[in-house]
């Protein structure tokens, strides 16, 4: 491996031509890089296809740009702006909070305080390496501390407090359980005494640096990277505060019951800011000084609090029981790097997937960005699945998921490059990963290098491209077949609604449109009702309830709930999105199965081999036989492909009237021959029993369908991630491409669709 390391990201990831794109670059082993803009044409090195193709684009950027090593602040915390320096306390004081630690022990963690790790100055309440609650003070030369006598148990709610007498140095640290039958991992039947009260005299007084007061972290600085936050807390913090005097035992008992102390220096009511549309990121101080806290790397809101009693399963029903804020020492939603350069694509630049290609020696990185036309130009729009790209961003399934080998049906194939990628913890996790304390990751963002968004990348442990690198096969084929197209993205549709779709005769999905917002579903539905035409040519689409963060469109949120193929499951009561206030999980669980929109829904996934489609009796009906012009009656469709050798595979969707497939839908083809490494999806299994694999269960298949919608609209769907990756075989001249041509040509033509003259002359309702 080269000693030079290059990484970068674009902000935004997607925008119109004529709008600027900023590029943030970090380099190790070099102070300059060569730079050029390229258009990404095909992103799969597989020798059975056209191979990796990129085209250089004329641009006004400098061929050589200066770069430097940039550092990432990892971990979520809250910084409190203290312009009057009120937290540099000379008087006696009390700190109090409700906490739910998830990873006590091993490393020191800060719950809250004004502490300089660099200079050992200030004070903080936290958890020591032995897993015990501890309060410490420092004067720059010495540190003194007092600790609880009882080790903290993970995921148990506690009331914690420390009172400090500035005159005598007498300090009392209090740790008392507020555990009930609902709010903690273990219940009252466990005979563990969580309580401890310890009094000691500290021998020094705190001295202060000019630093922030922090929740869930401490201040640190070094010459190389400058200021950063360390000693990060893992767990939840509920209502908390600082009082600039010693509280009496009676007053502490009142705070433990949830009352606000009299005249607090700061009291952060973590239940403030809740609406039925979500929760803001600011931590509201209801005390007289209004010392608002700002969340960094998006601490997770909408979490159950110390007083949760299980009846209300959403913060919308009872905000007072949802004061918990979750913090994680490996959370990242923004690397916050300095801009290295900016480039504005010319207004007339072709819509497409581009990259800033940077190189030095043998090291190369291609930083992708998606350019939408300034004004719609084509009849076809390809909707790039930017929500899905972010959901899978930097996933580590082959390294971390215990079931990875079973899913892919072989020992994961790990390369030296994959191992290097695994080391890049500073670039954050995907929504398929777990934080260090075991919690699922619910936030993801494009404001960081996304390694698996690079052209040519394949999923670690597998032999195929995924998401954007796979989607380039469709774009390559459209150009090869002579079709003009514009690109739009999930973010465009979410932000602009149906107006993003209306200019186009046909909308094409890419390989894996899995993550959708309510607005995206509504807009697609309205487009179809208005006479639009959709080609759903992917697998496992319209599946997870997803939302963008209102204050930052680069960030999306999803929570995995009680159904679906999920890498993690939200804790009880924590299934609602902080970004939008809606219940996450599957759209199917909320009455909007994808079958109701595009006729197909997720049925199975497998990674050993893809299979072909074969024609079904409906394909010979006069309404739809035109789809198969040039296809033999018994010809297998897609018994080839770059994705495991077939057009039907990886993840497959099926026709199902019981889930809302329109009754007049024509089932024109179906896949067959899948192995038992293709099991039926978990949401279809109410009782677990043998016989749910591809050789046994007829529901394990991918289907091809067609149906008309009002006002001469229509849907054609081939429910398979592998479908578009079959298009490049034989230089694009194959029967998958022939079907695509037949449908596209019909969909972009003005007037009625072929076969529409027969609609209504007989009943197709099943």
Describe this protein with a few key phrases.
single chain; 766 residues; mainly beta; eight-stranded antiparallel beta sheet; 10 helices; 44 strands; 10% helix; globular
Cα gyration radius (Å): 28 Å
Outline type = globular
Query: Number of DSSP strands?
Result: 44
Distance between the termini: 60 Å
In DSSP terms (H or I, runs of 4 or more residues), the helix count works out at 10
Secondary structural class: mainly beta
Main beta-sheet strand count, sense and barrel state: 8 strands, antiparallel
Strand content: 25-35%
Tell me roughly what share of residues is in helical segments. Answer: 10-25%
Average pLDDT reading = 94
Query: Strand order across the biggest sheet?
Result: 12-11-10-9-16-7-24-23
Low-confidence stretches: 760-766
Task: Present the secondary structure layout.
Layout: E1 5-11, E2 14-16, E3 21-28, E4 32-42, E5 53-57, E6 64-66, E7 77-80, E8 93-101, E9 109-116, E10 121-127, E11 132-139, E12 143-151, E13 158-164, E14 170-177, E15 196-201, E16 213-215, E17 218-222, E18 226-230, E19 235-243, H1 249-256, E20 266-268, E21 274-275, E22 278-279, E23 282-283, E24 293-296, E25 300-303, E26 324-327, E27 341-343, E28 352-360, E29 363-372, E30 380-384, H2 386-391, H3 397-400, H4 404-408, H5 416-422, E31 443-445, H6 468-480, E32 486-489, H7 490-496, E33 506-509, E34 515-516, H8 518-529, E35 533-536, E36 544-545, E37 547-549, E38 552-557, H9 595-598, E39 600-611, E40 613-615, E41 648-655, E42 666-671, E43 703-709, E44 713-718, H10 735-748
Parallel strand pairs: 2-29, 30-32, 30-33, 33-35, 34-36, 35-44
Antiparallel strand pairs: 1-3, 3-27, 4-5, 4-6, 4-28, 7-16, 7-24, 8-13, 8-19, 9-10, 9-16, 10-11, 11-12, 13-14, 14-15, 17-18, 19-20, 19-26, 21-22, 23-24, 25-26, 28-29, 31-38, 37-38, 39-41, 40-42, 42-43, 43-44
Helix pairs in contact: 7-8
